[in-house]
């Protein structure tokens, strides 16, 4: 058993990121047995859930003429436009039924503001609006986080880098993650994570 200073954070293991989903990540569902097993090794367990309103600004469908996976400039910087995914209350936004959700201490929803996306579990994409997760972890005495989930090169990487910047020790268990890999984003984010001091295990 890991000490109570270590948290497991499982990112966005939802139907829309699994095969057949609206923003399917190849092999996304393959990680579930490993994530389920890891929960038994941690005393602090957090699940995140991508949770967008239907009018979310990260959806290509809400930008007339824009193609999914194109990039637009938002007031907070460049933003990839995604297929409509993880709309609040839909079946695609639900956790995969194979994921053990009962052991979770906290379920953190993110991306609920229409005007801004939130890849990271700590800050929205303006890199300044907090989700509250930092306070939750610190007030529970957590100093190290282990990240797993979907997708390696977006929500896992952004969360890992933010956690490292906040001063947490950070490990990403790559075998319990799967990537979208858009235009080399997996290699770029692996390097960015390593540069930020994240340990890729
Ligand atoms: C994610 C793109 C859009 C993720 C969420 O969970 O990695 N990626 N929304
Ligand atoms: Zn999203």
TrEMBL record:
Keywords: Hydrolase, Metal-binding, Pyridine nucleotide biosynthesis
The keyword Iron belongs to this UniProt entry's keyword annotation: no
Molecular-function GO terms, alphabetical: nicotinamidase activity
Pathway given in the UniProt record: Cofactor biosynthesis; nicotinate biosynthesis; nicotinate from nicotinamide: step 1/1
Annotated Isochorismatase-like domain residues: 7-196
Keyword Metal-binding: yes
Broad EC category: hydrolase
EC number: 3.5.1.19
Family annotation (InterPro entries): Isochorismatase-like_dom, Isochorismatase-like_sf, Isochorismatase_Nicotinamidase
Family affiliation: Belongs to the isochorismatase family.
Protein name, UniProt field: nicotinamidase
Organism: Albidovulum sediminicola
């Amino acid at each position: 058993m890991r000490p109570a200073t270590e948290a497991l954070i499982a990112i966005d293991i939802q139907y829309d990121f699994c095969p057949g989903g609206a923003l399917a990540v190849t092999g996304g569902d393959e990680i579930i047995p490993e994530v389920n097993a890891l929960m038994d090794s941690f005393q602090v367990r957090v699940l995140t859930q991508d949770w967008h309103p239907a009018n979310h600004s990260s959806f290509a469908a809400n930008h007339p003429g824009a193609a999914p996976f194109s990039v637009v400039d938002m007031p907070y910087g460049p933003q990839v436009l995604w297929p409509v995914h993880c709309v609040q209350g839909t079946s695609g936004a639900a956790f995969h039924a194979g994921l053990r959700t009962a052991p979770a201490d906290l379920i953190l929803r993110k991306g609920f503001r229409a005007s801004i996306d939130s890849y990271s579990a700590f800050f929205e994409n303006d890199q300044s609006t907090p989700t509250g997760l930092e306070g939750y972890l610190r007030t529970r005495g957590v100093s190290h986080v282990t990240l797993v989930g979907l997708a390696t090169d977006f929500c896992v990487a952004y969360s890992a880098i933010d956690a490292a910047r906040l001063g947490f020790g950070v490990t990403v268990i790559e075998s319990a993650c799967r990537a979208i890999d858009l235009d080399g984003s997996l290699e770029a984010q692996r390097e960015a994570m390593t540069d930020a001091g994240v340990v890729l295990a």
